[in-house]
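Hi support team,

I've been running sequence recovery on a batch of backbones for a student project. Most finish fine, but this one hangs at about 90% for roughly twenty minutes before it completes. I'm not sure whether the input is malformed or the queue is just slow. I've pasted the structure tokens below so you can try to reproduce it. Let me know if you need the job ID as well.

Thanks,
M.K.
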């Protein structure tokens, strides 16, 4: 973006901020974070007013932004009476009413409070980080356990439903839109060889052996904020809604136990951090022990593999489709991401007995 275009864009951002806070002076509106989907900005006001987060919702991904808001407000109001030291971001209303502002180009915007004096991490390097992540996400799961999942909108239909993601992969393989299939057949074969085993979880859900709950649905480590050496907030609630505990437990382990970045090119750096796994599992499962059913308890060990697998085939399908969903920084970015997930699955499979043992010790089975 050249200087003139950036100047015009900055004026537009300031106008949008004024729709939420017409009486506050604006100091700066700066790009913030590195999310894959939405465009996020930190709004700094003049004087001592607390900063806020402004987001443009990607309506190509989240086709029902009003549903996102409805979900968020339900959780926001429900947790008002919660006495934990953990929190979620609170939506800020538009001055004219509601919680969404639609600009002249049909862009959909929302505002929320900024969690002060906080930070996120991308790779767990110390055991306390994994333990605090388990405390944070375990708090969220337990706090939401009395909510009726049927009253919440599914932000993205079949978001973690494996059969749906496998159909997407099969369509990407058949279409081969970007002409990349021949070079990655071995990676495709790796994922296809594991689909039947992991489909067992979906069959248990469909049979009612694993209950639907209100869960976060995107519990990677950087969706948790820390203050000092304690978790302080669970953020990025776009996908929050109906799901199963395995989704949150598994996706947390997927990122917390990975010794490298999600897009690390050197696969020798990708390994399974067994200590981080134990620390997270201990803190998380202690909080959901009382709400876990026997059906859930028996297969927690498969959840990390399931979620790593789902992310791996999503990255792979997007690569075959020509990188149309995830933001990429270079041509093979999604291939690198999928290869990292593949390597992590291999490491998890090597540690399957250990993972079962840890869960058995925590849950007493």
């Amino acid at each position: 973006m050249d200087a003139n275009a950036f100047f015009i864009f900055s004026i537009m951002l300031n106008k949008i901020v004024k729709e939420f806070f017409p009486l506050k002076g604006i100091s700066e509106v700066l790009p913030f974070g590195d999310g894959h989907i939405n465009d996020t900005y930190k709004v700094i006001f003049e004087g001592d007013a607390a900063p806020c987060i402004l987001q443009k919702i990607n309506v190509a991904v989240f086709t029902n932004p009003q549903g996102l808001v409805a979900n968020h407000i339900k959780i926001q109001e429900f947790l008002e009476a919660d006495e934990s030291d953990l929190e979620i971001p609170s939506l800020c209303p538009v001055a004219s009413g509601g919680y969404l502002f639609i600009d002249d180009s049909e862009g959909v915007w929302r505002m929320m409070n900024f969690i002060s004096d906080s930070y996120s991490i991308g790779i767990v390097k110390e055991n306390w980080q994994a333990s605090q992540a388990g405390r944070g996400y375990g708090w969220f799961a337990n706090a939401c356990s009395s909510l009726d999942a049927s009253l919440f909108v599914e932000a993205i239909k079949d978001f973690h439903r494996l059969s749906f993601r496998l159909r997407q992969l099969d369509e990407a393989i058949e279409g081969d839109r970007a002409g990349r299939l021949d070079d990655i057949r071995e990676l495709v074969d790796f994922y296809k060889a594991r689909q039947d085993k992991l489909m067992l979880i979906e069959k248990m859900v469909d049979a009612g052996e694993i209950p639907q709950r209100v869960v976060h649905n995107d519990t990677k480590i950087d969706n948790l904020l820390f203050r000092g050496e304690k978790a302080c907030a669970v953020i990025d609630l776009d996908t929050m809604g109906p799901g199963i505990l395995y989704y949150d437990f598994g996706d947390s382990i997927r990122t917390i136990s990975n010794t490298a970045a999600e897009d690390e090119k050197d696969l020798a750096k990708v390994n399974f951090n067994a200590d981080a796994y134990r620390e997270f599992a201990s803190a998380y499962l202690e909080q959901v022990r009382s709400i876990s059913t026997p059906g859930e308890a028996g297969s927690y060990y498969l959840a990390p593999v399931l979620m790593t697998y789902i992310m791996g085939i999503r990255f792979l399908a997007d690569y075959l489709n020509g990188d149309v969903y995830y933001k990429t920084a270079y041509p093979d970015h999604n291939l690198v991401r999928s290869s990292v997930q593949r390597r992590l699955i291999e490491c998890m499979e090597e540690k399957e007995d250990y993972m079962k043992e840890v869960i058995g010790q925590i849950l007493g089975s």
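--
Follow-up from support: It reproduced on our side and the slowdown came from queue contention, not your input. The chain is about 45% helix and 10% strand. No action needed from you.
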